[in-house]
Amino acid sequence: METLKKNLFNKAGLYYSLARTGQFALQGYLLPWMDFLATGKKREAPPEFKNHIKEALQKIKQLHEKDLENIKNEIYPIKVLYPENPIKHAMRYPQVLRDAFQASKRRKEKVSDKFFEEAAEYLEDVPEYYKRNFHYQTGGYLSKISAELYEHQVEILFSGAADAMRRLLLPFMKVHFQGSQGEGLQFLEVASGTGRFSRFLALAFPKAKITCVDLSPIYLAKAREQLKEFKNINFVQGAAENLPFKEGTFDAVVSCFLFHELPMNIRQEVLAEGFDFLKSGGFLGLVDSIQKNDDKEFQWALKQFPLDFHEPFYKNYVQNPMEALLADAGLKNVQSEAGFLSKAVCGVKS
Ligand SMILES: C[S@@+](CC[C@H](N)C(=O)[O-])C[C@H]1O[C@@H](n2cnc3c(N)ncnc32)[C@H](O)[C@@H]1O
């Protein structure tokens, strides 16, 4: 009976996750047409995309299977899969299309540093490398519309696999903290954005105290709104490389999709600071894009991504393995694991 239940869960879960992937892939299908409307030319996928589509689908399926295995093994609860309100989701899609149209115009004109008034008031307080329309998105990370669309756009970009990729770090954390629910633990999440990874972290470790940091006050406000059910999360605005915490404060310092957006020297500063904030025996981990040598089949995607999206530090990121940067920062027992286009990398402060 138990085995039957498990098999049913596996099958139903996989159908659900694959249907979700299909749904986001369909939404993505219309985006090149926005490009056509904006520029008069439809952006074609590179030939490698067509040649590797089978492998990509296989990798997405494997990622979903592993995700379900983690749920079954109680690394995180099934609640991580709950969808948002479908009406809210559908109502946002026209805005996603409109933003794709505007981003296509920016891409064509190579405009990556024009902000509108809403963002202007924050520009003085953020570092130079941050003053740009990452991904050519409207207002960079400094507008309400980008905070509203961000998670939806990322899920379309990764065909419904982004959430499962974010969760790649959690099994490492569960092992490190010996299956704990987070009792007595203090976690710091840098660059928490609108709080998508924070939600999964809080569900996996419901008793941990979590501090979420982001440079964007607008993304932080969105995170606060989306995570209001979690009383164990607090929010701090600031730069990951210059934070006001004391040495040895946290049991874990983590981030998701941050490092590829930072210049090399800032990547090293963030790691050095994260290391200092950790207690001895603490855990430092991240999820981010795969890099050169991680997966031969996706080398084309690593080249294509910075051409399609404004990502000025990505080429350098890809060339400099995060595993080596963590070891250089003094972390021991550095491990990593890839899933589709992302990988989790982590180490321990001995
Ligand atoms: C790609 S988003 C990732 C957001 C979130 N972690 C997720 O999983 O969706 C990158 C985030 O990093 C933040 N960010 C970039 N540079 C930062 C820095 N130096 N310090 C703090 N946050 C930063 C941005 O504001 C943005 O919210």
Please give the structural blueprint.
Layout: H1 2-29, H2 31-39, H3 47-51, H4 53-72, H5 86-109, H6 117-123, H7 144-157, H8 162-166, H9 170-176, E1 186-190, H10 196-204, E2 209-214, H11 217-226, E3 233-237, E4 250-256, H12 264-277, E5 278-289, H13 299-308, H14 314-319, H15 322-328, E6 332-339, E7 342-348
Parallel strand pairs: 1-2, 1-4, 2-3, 4-5
Antiparallel strand pairs: 5-7, 6-7
The structure holds S-adenosylmethionine (SAM).
Residues 130, 141, 166, 190-193, 196-197, 213-216, 219, 239-241, 256-258, 261 line the site of S-adenosylmethionine (SAM).
Distinct helical segment count:
15
Radius of gyration: 20 Å
Strand order of the largest sheet: 3-2-1-4-5-7-6
Structural class: alpha/beta
Instruction: Indicate the CATH architecture of the domain at 166-348.
Output: 3-Layer(aba) Sandwich
What is the CATH topology assignment of the domain at 166-348?
Answer: Rossmann fold
Number of strands: 7
What value does the average pLDDT take?
A: 92
> Could you say which small molecules are bound to this protein?
S-adenosylmethionine
> What is the CATH homology-level superfamily of the domain at 166-348?
Vaccinia Virus protein VP39
Silhouette: globular
Helix content: 40-55%
Question: β content, as a range?
Answer: 5-15%
Largest sheet: 7 strands, mixed
Q: For the terminal residues, how far apart are their CA atoms?
A: 45 Å
The low-pLDDT segments are none
Order of helices and strands: HHHHHHHHHEHEHEEHEHHHEE
CATH class of the domain at 166-348: Alpha Beta
